[in-house]
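Render this sequence as a predicted structure.
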Amino acid sequence: MAEDEGTDGPFEATLPGDEARRAAFREAVAAGDVPWDGPRVAGNLSTGFQALDEGWGGFSPGALVALVAPPDAPSEELLYPPATFAPARYLSLLRNAPEVARHAAATGYEAFDVTETDTTRLLDDPAGALSGLDPESVVVVDPATELEREGRERYLTFVSTLKRAVETTDSVAVLHCPRMNPRALQRDLTLARADVVLELERYRADEPRHGVQWFCYCHKNRLGRVPDTPVRFAFDDGPRTVQPRDA
C-alpha cells in the first residue's frame, strides 16, 4: 500500500461563532490571509475539509445530509468542521453542551454554539425548534437515532420541517446516523428523505503498520454528482483527510 503524501486537517483559521469575529474572518478571507475559504462549487457550503470541498463540491444549499457510521466510530468529529465554518445550530440529543464543546475543542474546532435538546422538544414543535435559522447556516442533529426511535409520522413531520427550514434559508442539515438495529429505527425513512448519504467505513490494513483505516463514501447525491472514489480519513489528532501518493 502506498504511503501517505499529505493531510488536510483543521483550518489555520476557522469561522468563529459570534458575528463580530465572523465578520473579521470574512475580511481575512477577502484579503487572502486565510488559506481556504470554501468549496469550489459557487454557492455551496463547506464540508470543513478542503479535499472534500474540491473533490465533491461541498454541500448544496437546502440539502439534507445523512452521515452513517458504526456506533463506535469517531464520526462525530466530522460534524464539528462544517459547524465551525458557517453559522451553526448544533442540536445535541445525548451529550450535554460542555461535553460537546470540550471534545470539539480537543479536535481543533470550538467556535460554535451547542443546544442541548431532546426528542420531545424537537418532535412536538419542530417549527419552533428550527425557527430563526441564519442564512447559509448548518444544522447538526446529533444523533438522529434518538428521533428515529419515535413514531414514523412524528419523525417524518420533523424531517420534512427540517428540509423546508434549510431550503428557505439556503442552509444544510447534517443528521448523524450511527448504525443501530434497523427494526428499532426509522432509518429507511432517513435515508430515503436525505439528499446526500455519506458513510464512514472502517478497514483493517493487511500490513499491521498501517493499522485501522477510515474511508468516507458518498452513496447518494440528489443535488450533485456522486464521487467515484471515497475519501480517506485519519482521527489521530483531530479529523483530517489523507491523500495517498497513488490516488
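Summary. The beta strands are 4-8, 64-69, 88-92, 114-116, 138-142, 172-178, 196-204, 212-221, 231-234, 240-244. The domain at 4-244 is CATH 3.40.50.300 (Rossmann fold).
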